[in-house]
Amino acid sequence: MIARTESAYAISPQRIGAMMLRYWYLLRSSWPRLLDLVYWPTVQMVTWGFLQYYIATNAGFFARAGGTFIGAVLLWDILFRGQLGFSISFLEEMWSRNIGNLMMSPLRPIEFIAALMVMSVVRLSIGAVPVTFLAIAFFGFNLYGLGLALVAFFFNLMLTSWAIGIFVSGLILRNGMGAENFAWSIMFLFMPLTCVYYPVTTLPVWLQPVAWVLPPTYVFEGMRALLVQKVFRGDLMLDALALNAVLFAAGVFGFLKLLQSARRHGSLMQTGE
User: How wide is the angle at C-alpha 217 spanned by C-alphas 192 and 208, nearest 5°?
Assistant: First the structure.
């Protein structure tokens, strides 16, 4: 009797090894999980490295660039929360295991996407509007003082956030919840490349063409031109709109193709890890 009691509390290296092997197989078989291991350290190093370089080489600039950092933070919040609001509404269907039911209903994929887009604006409004008033109260920065330029900034950022949210939703449909981390973190991949806190010229020459392919880069460059030089760059907004049209079309196309692949492989009804 005593021997049985003692054996119940005994530690088994084999059982520990078996569980470790299980988690290793889970990690090895999921490329989104492997990518996530190196994703955050790389993004943080690159983003803050470029920012440190920009500050070190332009110390005198900040005396006349008041508000650029706060403006960048608020506009970045629109971009990030727009995509996150889209993705969370989609993930709620995945978490409740309802996505298969929706895809078998008369609801069309485009209608599903449209509903998620509207909900992203609702979620963004609830979360971001109070923050803009706090920026006025604490720092005297009025985002609404940007006038009609704010409309152009907002519209372009939302188009980008929707395009990325749509594509990420497709990835999750096809790869399961193992790809869920993309919904939370993929936007930060664009932070160093879209030059949120520093101009494009801060980047290495070979990386600048990549930055100019991304629509938010034009928005943040336009924001700095408006706050520092007091000039609204309509040309930048039109360029961003053209790129957003391509990006949005690619996002919808990717979602539809991934949905088709998920249906073909039967992953719509297997929304687990």
Answer: 65
d(CA 82, CA 132): 15
Collapsing DSSP to helix, strand or coil, 45 comes out as helix
Pick the closest to residue 216 from 136, 162, 140, 139 (CA basis): 162
Block means of pLDDT (10 residues each) for the chain, length 273 residues?
53 65 67 62 58 62 62 84 85 81 81 86 82 79 84 94 92 80 83 87 91 94 87 92 96 91 73 52
Task: List the structure tokens of 19.
Answer: 């569980």
**How big is the chain, counted in residues?**
273
Type of residue numbered 96: S
Indicate whether this model's pTM tops 0.85: no
Q: Round to whole Å and give the CA distance between 264 and 261.
A: 5
Contact assessment for residue 263 and residue 103, using Cβ atoms and an 8 Å cutoff:
yes
**What's the CA gap between 205 and 207, in Å, rounded?**
5
